[in-house]
Specification:
8 helices, about 20% helix
Length: about 280
C-alpha cells in the first residue's frame, strides 16, 4: 500500500464527514463523533483546527492528525506566535504503510505558521508517549495526577494556570455536545458529567476560576451526591485521593515541543513545570 499526503488544511464543514468516518473506525464509541468534531474543529473561539489527511492509493482515508488552536500562555516567558493542542492522532488499523503516522504528523508540523516560534502541547497515553518523545522530538514533563474527590468538595492546586482563559473559551468548553456542564460560583468550579460503568461522575474542568466568570455561564449546580474526578499537572493536588494505577485506563503524560526556535525549549520547560495544566486545557473529546 502506498501513501499520499494531502496538503495541510484549515478545518471546514465539508471536510469533516470523511474524518468522522475514520475516527468511528479507529475509535468506536457510543457517543457519535460528528457533533464533537464540529465543536472541536469549527466552533473553537481560538480558531478552526489545522489538520492533515493521508490516503491510500485507492483514495481511502487511512490517517488523520489535528492541531487545535489553544489559548496563549498566561505568563509567557518568551514570545510565541501561537499555541496548539495535539489531538486526534488516528490511523486505520488495516493500513500497512511503514511510518504512516510519523510522516503524517511531521508534514503538519512543517506547515505551522512561520511568523515566530510555536508551542505544541499534548497529553499522550501509554501507547503514544514513546512515539512523541523518541521519534517526534517532544519533551516530556511527566505524568498527570488523577484524583478522586468526594461529592461537594473541590481539588486544590496552588500552581497558577499555564494557559490563559477568557469568557469565550469557558463558554465553548461548557457547550460540548451531549455532555452536561455544571458550575459552582462560590468555588469557581466548572465540571462536566461523565458516566463510568453506568454511574455518574463529574470531571473537574477547572477549580479556582474567577467567580464572575463562572457566574456568567449561568450553569446549574451539580448534585451534591456525585463524586468528582480531577486530572492535572503542576504540583500536589490537595483534598482528594489518588486514583491507583490499576484503576486508571492509561497513564497520561504531558508533552510539548517548540517549533521554529528549539533554543526556547529549556526556558519553556522550566516555565511549564511550575504551571497548572488540567482537564479544561486538554479534555476536549
Amino acid at each position: 500500500m502506498s501513501l499520499r499526503l494531502a496538503s495541510p488544511a484549515v478545518a471546514a464543514p465539508e471536510a469533516l464527514p470523511e474524518i468522522v468516518a475514520l475516527l468511528e473506525r479507529v475509535f468506536p464509541r457510543d457517543r457519535p463523533w460528528a457533533p464533537d468534531l464540529e465543536w472541536q474543529y469549527l466552533r473553537n473561539p481560538w480558531g478552526p483546527a489545522r489538520y492533515i489527511n493521508a490516503y491510500a492509493d485507492s483514495g481511502a482515508l487511512i490517517a488523520h492528525y489535528g492541531l487545535l488552536p489553544a489559548p496563549p500562555l498566561a505568563e509567557p516567558p518568551v514570545a510565541l506566535a501561537g499555541t496548539y493542542l495535539s489531538l486526534n492522532v488516528a490511523a486505520d488499523p488495516s493500513a500497512t504503510v511503514p511510518g504512516l503516522m510519523v510522516a503524517t504528523t511531521r508534514a503538519l508540523y512543517r506547515a505551522l505558521p512561520s511568523d515566530g516560534p510555536t508551542l505544541v502541547v499534548g497529553i499522550t497515553n501509554e501507547n503514544s508517549a514513546m512515539g512523541f518523545v523518541r521519534v517526534l522530538g517532544f519533551r516530556s514533563l511527566g505524568r498527570l495526577s488523577l484524583t478522586a474527590h468526594a461529592p461537594g468538595t473541590w481539588p486544590t492546586l496552588d500552581a497558577p494556570r499555564a494557559l490563559a482563559v477568557n469568557a469565550a473559551h469557558l463558554a465553548w468548553r461548557a457547550s460540548r455536545p451531549g455532555v452536561a456542564a455544571y458550575g459552582d460560583v462560590r468555588a469557581g468550579g466548572l465540571t462536566v458529567r461523565l458516566h463510568h460503568r453506568g454511574l455518574p461522575l463529574d470531571a473537574v474542568l477547572s477549580a479556582g476560576l474567577e467567580n464572575d466568570a463562572v457566574a456568567r455561564l449561568s450553569l446549574p449546580r451539580s448534585s451534591r451526591l456525585v463524586p468528582r474526578l480531577y486530572a492535572a499537572f503542576g504540583g500536589p493536588v490537595r483534598g482528594g485521593l489518588a486514583v491507583p494505577e490499576r484503576l486508571r485506563p492509561s497513564p497520561l503524560e504531558y508533552v510539548f515541543r517548540v517549533f521554529g526556535d528549539a533554543s526556547l525549549t529549556e526556558a519553556l520547560s522550566r516555565h511549564l513545570q511550575t504551571r497548572r495544566f488540567e482537564f479544561l486545557d486538554f479534555d476536549v473529546v
